[in-house]
Amino acid sequence: MFRKAFDFISSLKLTLICLAAAIVLVFAGTIAQVHLGTIEVQERYFQSMFVWWPVGSQGLRIPLFPGGHLLGAVLLVNLITAHLRRFRWTWRKMGIHLTHAGLIIMLAGGLFTDLFSVESFTRLGAGETKNYSEDSHRMELAVIDESDKDLDQVTAIPDARLKRGGTIEHSSLPFRIIVRHYYENCRLQVIDRPQAGVPAATQGAGTRITVVPLEKATAPDAVNTLGAVIEIVPLPAVGEATAAPLGTWLVSDELSGPQGFTFAGKPWRIELRPMRYYTDYSLTLQRFTHEKYAGTDIAKNYASKVTLIDPDRSENRDVLIYMNHPLRYRGETFYQSGFEKNDTATILQTVHNPTFMAPYVACVVVGAGLLVQFAFQFGGFSRRQKAASAI
Q1: Dihedral class, residue 174 (left if φ above 0, else alpha if ψ from -120 to 50, else beta)
Q2: Is the pTM of this model over 0.90?
Q3: Which residue stretches of the chain have pLDDT < 50?
Q4: Which residues contact 176 (CB under 8 A, 6 or more apart)?
Q5: Per the CB 3.0–4.6 Å rule, which of 54, 122, 212, 229 could disulfide with 180?
């Protein structure tokens, strides 16, 4: 039984099945981009184990087709087992071994890149300093303790946790957060007259706003407005069963700023904002330049001169980031991505990819394997030619 399973896993038949399924998946994903957009298609088709088919309105889903992660993993296992099955160590097969090793590195690197790489953006105005980047596709509920004048203590709750609803507790918070409503997409309307709607919350901006739930938009250029209604309930004191809630708040990425409240003599702020990734160093924008082709508005080059400050490594130097010349530092890569109107701020794309060297290593190994294999074949051919001419 085990032998049959191993033979199938390492067979060329499984390779062809996976390649055919990958062609179908790419074709279906490309067609789906017309209605769903690039990001949604990546998540549903290529960054998942299965392509799911929703059934009814109860949230039930059934697997319809293998996703990109599953196909990549099966191909990787198939290639490794096939190589182990047919492995015979001889110098004449060195080129084949190197070529297979390079393909394994390439497949594994691509899979790990998709699983562990993170893309975010850093917006810097002139003279502005930041030690974090923001994710353009994920949000977080930031609960900020402002009692320390020198340092804010931030508890970040991912929007995926808000989506699940229920009660949220954390050791850094002296209260519970209960998610009463979560909106993947909604419209906020100001209550400017009687009968204009029911206030979304009892505290903060939500007392003047009503929420209209909307279907999640998946079109390529569509923008969703996230929102949630949360209730803050103090943790009960010793001997108490429950504590009176402080009220409910509406949080949304459409609201202009954080909302504050006081609890146990401490000032607190809450805000739904793009997810932040903090670093141990900071970047300060010194100057942004935007060059255009003469007589046009077409960008010729744009560059950001930033100061990199890292106290832990005693780094304090100026760096010029421009197109095709990123800054690589401590596992992060900063690309010159864009800028805001009137050149008031620069936008740096920040990429954290632990396996960014895998494609380069794979290409070198595959190239070396092909050269070695060609050298052996050419050597054998030359010897046969000499032997034939000597007769």
Answers
A1: alpha
A2: no
A3: none
A4: 167, 168, 169, 232, 233, 234, 235
A5: 229
